Amino acid sequence: MTLTDYHATKDIIDCGDEQSMRLLFITLNPRLCKFAEKFVKDEDIAKDLVQDCFMQIYEKRESLDGISLHAMLFTMVRNQCLNHLKHKTVIKKFKLDLIRLRNEERLYNINFGCKEEVGLISEEVINSIQTAIDSLPATTRMVYRMSREERLKNREIQEKTGMSAYQVIKHIKIAKSAIIEQLAEL
C-alpha cells in the first residue's frame, strides 16, 4: 500500500500488513501527537501516549480487520490523555496528603520540653513565612504587612491606599496562598 492508496482508503486498511501499519503510523503520528499535546500540555508525554496507542493497535492488529483505525486511534489517544490527567491529579493529591502528614508527624514528634528544638522549628517556620512575603509583588506585600503587622482593618487599608475593598481582600488572599505554599515545602 502506498501513501496515495492510504489516503484513498483512509478509513480501512489491512491491519495484518506491517507495511500498512507503518504507513498508518507515519501518516497519523504527527496529527495524533498534536492532538494529545492539547490535552497534556507536554510534547514528550503526548508522544509517549500516542506511541502506547499505536503499540496497542499493533498488538491487536489481527483482530482489527475492517475497523476504522483513524477514528479508533483518535479515540484511544483522547482516552489515554484523560487517564494520564486523572492519574496526575491523584498523584498531586497524594503528594499534598503526604506533605500534610509529614508536617503533622513532625509536630507530633517534637519534644516540647526541649526549648532548643521548638526554637529551631519556630525559626524555620518564620524564615519560610518571611521568604514567601518577600517574594510577593510590592503592592500585595504592602497590603499584607498593613493587615498583619500594623493590624489595620481592611477599611483602614482602603483609606490609606485608595484601593477598593475587593482589591484589599484579593491582595491578602494572594499573600496567604503564597505563605501556605511556602510552608507546604517544609
TrEMBL record:
<dbReference type="InterPro" id="IPR036388">
    <property type="entry name" value="WH-like_DNA-bd_sf"/>
</dbReference>
<dbReference type="InterPro" id="IPR013325">
    <property type="entry name" value="RNA_pol_sigma_r2"/>
</dbReference>
<dbReference type="InterPro" id="IPR007627">
    <property type="entry name" value="RNA_pol_sigma70_r2"/>
</dbReference>
<dbReference type="GO" id="GO:0003677">
    <property type="term" value="F:DNA binding"/>
</dbReference>
<dbReference type="Pfam" id="PF04542">
    <property type="entry name" value="Sigma70_r2"/>
</dbReference>
<keyword id="KW-0804">Transcription</keyword>
<feature type="domain" description="RNA polymerase sigma-70 region 2">
    <location>
        <begin position="28"/>
        <end position="88"/>
    </location>
</feature>
<dbReference type="GO" id="GO:0016987">
    <property type="term" value="F:sigma factor activity"/>
</dbReference>
<feature type="domain" description="RNA polymerase sigma factor 70 region 4 type 2">
    <location>
        <begin position="127"/>
        <end position="165"/>
    </location>
</feature>
<keyword id="KW-0731">Sigma factor</keyword>
<protein>
    <submittedName>
        <fullName>Sigma-70 family RNA polymerase sigma factor</fullName>
    </submittedName>
</protein>
<comment type="similarity">
    <text>Belongs to the sigma-70 factor family. ECF subfamily.</text>
</comment>
<dbReference type="InterPro" id="IPR013249">
    <property type="entry name" value="RNA_pol_sigma70_r4_t2"/>
</dbReference>
<keyword id="KW-0805">Transcription regulation</keyword>
<dbReference type="InterPro" id="IPR013324">
    <property type="entry name" value="RNA_pol_sigma_r3/r4-like"/>
</dbReference>
<dbReference type="Pfam" id="PF08281">
    <property type="entry name" value="Sigma70_r4_2"/>
</dbReference>
<dbReference type="InterPro" id="IPR039425">
    <property type="entry name" value="RNA_pol_sigma-70-like"/>
</dbReference>
<dbReference type="InterPro" id="IPR014284">
    <property type="entry name" value="RNA_pol_sigma-70_dom"/>
</dbReference>
<dbReference type="GO" id="GO:0006352">
    <property type="term" value="P:DNA-templated transcription initiation"/>
</dbReference>
